[in-house]
Design goal:
300 residues, alpha/beta, Rossmann fold, globular, binds nicotinamide-adenine-dinucleotide, binds magnesium ion
Length: 300
């Protein structure tokens, strides 16, 4: 990515990042960002911090690649100390992120592991509190998406694994985090345009995202009296390994992003500023909201 591909220089957003056609590039899930062609932009060279999260303590899941990596880079450059969670097989991506966030001068601790386990989720939160001295921001980014053509081929095992990663883990992490969260604390979940406009081949993923949306609305109302805010971000198509490692069939990767009015996929770097806004005190009156970043296929 060249230096002009950033969030600060006025430019034509249609030309800011690549659009189709893309190469086929199958990987097994979870894929690695470093093996993608072209490599996604997570803000490595562009994101500028302004001290908006100075001294905050954040736990980010899915922090090795894609949207989670962009959030980690942005939060570190805004001054937050971080715990990064990801799957052990993603260590090569995670090492790159650790180096980048430590270069921002904040504390960053890697705690890899499978959030599909309630016990691990509880441990992840207590180890985060021990490492960082508290927990002010929980960002649930980790997710599982596997495209399956027909209901006949969709197994109970997959249906359950999708809900375990996308919905149950969010519930377990929120539940374990809330007792530690001071007033001013924030939770940010990652839903999807699929919550509102489901694709036929995402019969498990789309309803898991609808559950995240409803959970966000309900939890926000439940904890508003504690001064804790809960919001979600709903991306449209974003250029990440989630998609090339089975989230879409390879023929859809070739034309990925062509279905949105802006005719290209978003890059993770284009999502991070929204997470920063929702985490910071600048969004103090925003709770229970879902923020779309869709390239034009808006939320209802
Ligand atoms: P990604 O593959 O880079 O990130 C997903 C991450 O989830 C992985 O890096 C992995 O660390 C984590 N993960 C998966 N299963 C896990 C498990 N059992 N335990 C711990 N971690 C696990 O892809 P991404 O697109 O950046 O995905 C981030 C979020 O954005 C997901 O929730 C996804 O559903 C959502 N989203 C993505 C798109 C898109 O087009 N890429 C669109 C809408 C929503
Ligand atoms: Mg990853």
């Amino acid at each position: 990515m060249t230096a002009t591909k950033n969030q600060y220089t006025m430019q034509d957003p249609l030309k800011q990042y690549p659009g189709p056609d893309f190469e086929r590039q199958p990987q097994s899930a979870p894929g690695l960002a470093r093996d993608m062609k072209p490599r996604p932009d997570h803000g490595e060279e562009s994101y500028q911090g302004f001290g908006r999260l100075k001294g905050r303590r954040a736990l980010i899941t899915g922090a090795d690649s894609g949207i989670g990596r962009a959030v980690a880079i942005a939060f570190a450059r805004e001054g937050a100390d971080l715990v990064l969670n990801y799957l052990p097989s993603e260590e090569p991506d995670a090492r790159e992120v650790l180096e980048l966030v430590q270069a921002a001068g904040v504390k960053a601790v890697a705690l890899p592991g499978d959030i599909g386990s309630e016990t691990f989720c509880g441990d992840l939160v207590s180890r985060t509190v021990a490492e960082l001295g508290g927990l002010d921001i929980l960002v649930n980014v980790a997710g599982k998406q596997t495209s399956v053509e027909t209901i006949d081929e969709l197994t109970t095992k997959q249906f359950e694994a999708t809900f375990r990663t996308n919905v149950f883990a969010m519930f377990w992490l929120c539940k374990a985090t809330l007792p530690h969260m001071p007033p001013g604390g924030t939770i940010i979940n990652t839903t999807s345009i699929q919550s509102y406009q489901p694709s036929p081949s995402l019969l498990d993923y789309a309803p898991s995202k609808a559950a995240i949306t409803a959970f966000t609305h309900a939890l926000a109302k439940q904890v508003a009296s504690k001064g804790v805010r809960v919001n979600a971000v709903a991306p449209g198509p974003v250029w990440t390994p989630l998609q090339s490692s089975g989230g879409q069939p390879q023929d859809k990767i070739e034309v990925f992003g062509s279905e949105v009015p802006m005719k290209r996929p978003g890059q993770p770097a284009e999502l991070a500023p929204i997470y920063v806004l929702l985490a910071s005190q600048e969004s103090s009156f925003v709770t229970g909201e879902v923020y779309g970043v869709t390239g034009g296929n808006h939320l209802p």
